[in-house]
Design goal:
Helix content is 68%, strand content 0%. The termini are far apart. About 6% of the residues have low confidence. With 196 residues, the chain is an all-alpha fold.
């Protein structure tokens, strides 16, 4: 069944198989290969023994002939990799929760509490987000040394918090029209989100 002319408008060049092959399927196949090949390479080299990794005259570098778990065993039991992974998880989780807590408190104070200069505080937080992290490295490192947190997990967690909090707290909800009474459902909306 032929498609209506309105549906085909702008897409008529894809009506034949050779054109679809050249303009859609071939570029997608190339992109898929480029994106997935590094993962294939990592997976095959993980399970290859050393002899297959270094001797390309006897073994094909793209195929796996004698799989082994020696590299995984060495990584997990002969190195400090599990400790490094645990440290990474602790730092990422702590940074995320500290950032969210600080950002929610700051965003609530900026948006809901009325005090002189609240708009300027919000603008200052947003402008702090625009400062490149490389400029903040020296003052942050000085503070870490002064607090005695150098070479600790908490120093990394605080560093992550300091870089993520301004961006989270500057994304304020759009409740201005509810607060000014422009919405007919102002009282209902405020009761749902816990407002006055």
């Amino acid at each position: 069944m032929a498609k209506p002319a309105a549906e085909m408008e702008g897409m008529e060049y894809l009506s034949s198989l050779p054109r679809r092959l050249v303009t859609v399927y071939l570029p997608l196949a190339i992109l898929l290969f480029v994106l997935l090949f590094p993962f294939y390479w990592m997976a095959t080299t993980t399970f290859k023994p050393d002899a297959e990794l270094y001797n390309y005259e006897k073994f094909n570098p793209f195929w796996l002939t004698h799989p082994t778990l020696d590299h995984i065993k060495k990584l997990l039991f002969d190195t400090s990799y599990p400790e490094w992974m645990l440290n990474t998880i602790i730092v990422s989780v702590a940074s995320t929760f500290l950032s969210l807590f600080c950002a929610v408190c700051a965003a609530y104070a900026i948006e809901r509490l009325r005090y002189t200069g609240s708009q300027y505080v919000g603008l200052a937080i947003f402008l702090a987000y625009l400062v490149p992290p490389s400029i903040l490295f020296i003052p942050l490192a000085t503070m870490v040394f002064q607090l005695g947190m150098f070479d600790s997990i908490w120093a990394l967690s605080c560093r992550g918090t300091s870089s993520f909090t301004p961006s989270l707290s500057s994304r304020r909800p759009r409740t201005r029209r509810f607060q000014s009474g422009q919405s007919p459902n102002w009282s209902k909306a405020m009761s749902i989100i816990g407002g006055r």
